[in-house]
Amino acid sequence: MIVAIDGPAGAGKSTVARRLAERLDFRYLDTGAMYRALTWLAMNRGFPLDRADELARLAMEYPVTFDDRERVWIAGTDVTASIRQARIDRLVPVVAAHPAVREVMRERQRQLGADGNVVIEGRDIGTVVAPNAEVKVYLNADAGVRARRRQAERPDIGGDALVTDLRRRDERDAPRLRAAEDAVQIDTTSLQVEDVVDRIEHLVRERQPA
Ligand code: DC
User: Fold this and answer.
1) What is the pLDDT along the chain (210 residues), one digit of tens a residue?
2) What domain count does the chain have?
3) Can you give the residue range of the structural domain that contains 77?
4) Integer Rg of the chain from CA
5) For tag attachment on the chain, is the N or C end more exposed, with fewer CB atoms within 10 Å?
6) Å from CA of 122 to ligand 1 middle
7) Which pTM does this prediction carry?
8) Are residues 145 and 175 in the same domain?
9) 8 lines ligand 1 (CB under 6 A)
10) CA-based end-to-end distance of the chain
């Protein structure tokens, strides 16, 4: 079974998707980490981020992998910590906007999500990567709350800069961000993580074969 969790930055996707996967004993696939890792590699090698074909070739040549401790690897390097830096936050939407890059990434995401039970988190999972996912959830939250959540994850950045960054990312991610028609929408603004996980777990149990 595939559980697709989509939504904007700061809606709570990662925390919820991880907890849910733990609870259900499903695998967890963070597709945002894949775009982040490619962005890291491109920057590290001095690739201009506007060259879609070169970036797509780079993505093909260096597939992102996850080990069993959920560490993120690309080109033989553990980039788990490096991909969470503010400069990656700012540049990843530029890389993720190229259709040629997305095609390579989506194919790889389908392969990684192919076997068994998995929770896949991203922006276009329920709409494009796994349109047949048995459970689709679209998480959203008030922009102020999303910025505060991001601030807790990025204590090194000032509050104002974070609000501006989040607004820019929202604008850049907007063309790819859309709830699937059959997605269950959950507003997490005033919900606790465990409440959101409970709701999704309930949806999964309903659809799981007896
Ligand atoms: O969820 P995140 O913040 O780690 O995502 C990083 C970036 O990648 C974000 O700008 C949106 C983009 N992304 C995407 O376009 N499609 C996905 N399936 C996942 C992430």
Assistant:
1) 999 999 988 888 999 999 999 999 999 999 999 999 999 999 999 999 999 999 999 999 999 999 989 899 999 999 999 999 989 988 999 999 999 999 999 999 999 999 889 999 999 999 999 999 999 999 999 988 888 887 777 766 666 777 777 787 787 777 778 899 999 999 999 999 999 999 999 999 998 876
2) 2
3) 30-115
4) 16
5) C
6) 6
7) 0.91
8) yes
9) no
10) 13
